[in-house]
Amino acid sequence: MSKLSILSELWSFLKVRKKWWLAPIIIFLIILGGLIILTQGSALAPFIYAIF
Protein backbone atom coordinates (compact mmCIF):
# COMPACT_ATOMS: atom_id res chain seq x y z
CA MET A 1 0.00 0.00 0.00
CA SER A 2 1.54 3.28 -1.04
CA LYS A 3 1.48 6.56 0.84
CA LEU A 4 -0.53 8.19 -1.92
CA SER A 5 -3.32 5.65 -1.59
CA ILE A 6 -3.54 6.34 2.14
CA LEU A 7 -3.79 10.07 1.48
CA SER A 8 -6.41 9.56 -1.21
CA GLU A 9 -8.45 7.34 1.13
CA LEU A 10 -8.22 9.96 3.86
CA TRP A 11 -9.31 12.68 1.44
CA SER A 12 -12.28 10.62 0.22
CA PHE A 13 -13.26 9.89 3.84
CA LEU A 14 -13.22 13.60 4.67
CA LYS A 15 -15.24 14.37 1.55
CA VAL A 16 -17.88 11.68 1.95
CA ARG A 17 -18.37 11.89 5.72
CA LYS A 18 -18.11 15.72 5.80
CA LYS A 19 -15.51 15.60 8.57
CA TRP A 20 -13.81 18.84 7.57
CA TRP A 21 -12.96 19.65 11.19
CA LEU A 22 -10.34 16.87 11.04
CA ALA A 23 -8.39 18.58 8.25
CA PRO A 24 -6.70 21.27 10.43
CA ILE A 25 -5.75 18.64 13.01
CA ILE A 26 -4.19 16.39 10.37
CA ILE A 27 -2.36 19.30 8.73
CA PHE A 28 -1.00 20.44 12.11
CA LEU A 29 0.22 16.93 12.94
CA ILE A 30 1.94 16.61 9.56
CA ILE A 31 3.68 19.97 9.96
CA LEU A 32 4.70 19.16 13.54
CA GLY A 33 6.06 15.77 12.52
CA GLY A 34 8.01 17.31 9.66
CA LEU A 35 9.42 19.97 11.96
CA ILE A 36 10.59 17.37 14.46
CA ILE A 37 12.16 15.22 11.75
CA LEU A 38 13.93 18.16 10.08
CA THR A 39 15.35 19.59 13.33
CA GLN A 40 16.33 16.23 14.80
CA GLY A 41 20.06 16.68 14.35
CA SER A 42 20.32 20.44 14.48
CA ALA A 43 21.01 22.95 17.22
CA LEU A 44 17.31 23.91 17.24
CA ALA A 45 16.21 20.54 18.59
CA PRO A 46 16.41 21.43 22.32
CA PHE A 47 14.34 24.56 21.73
CA ILE A 48 11.68 22.75 19.71
CA TYR A 49 11.31 20.01 22.33
CA ALA A 50 11.22 22.60 25.14
CA ILE A 51 8.08 24.12 23.61
CA PHE A 52 6.18 20.90 24.23
Question: Can you walk through the features of this model?
Answer:
The protein contains three helices and no strands. It has helices spanning 3-17, 22-38, 45-51.
Summarize the structure.
This protein is mostly helical and 52 residues long. The protein contains 3 helices and no strands.
SSE topology:
Elements: H1 3-17, H2 22-38, H3 45-51
Poorly predicted parts: none
Q: Tell me the β content.
A: under 5%
Mean pLDDT: 80
- How would you sum up the major sheet? none
Note the run of SSEs as H and E. HHH
Helical stretch tally: 3
Helix content: over 70%
Structural class: mainly alpha
Quantity of strands, as a count: 0
Rounded to the nearest angstrom, the distance between the terminal CA atoms is 33 Å
Based on CA atoms alone, the radius of gyration comes out at 15 Å
Mass-distribution shape: elongated
Defining traits:
52 residues; mainly alpha
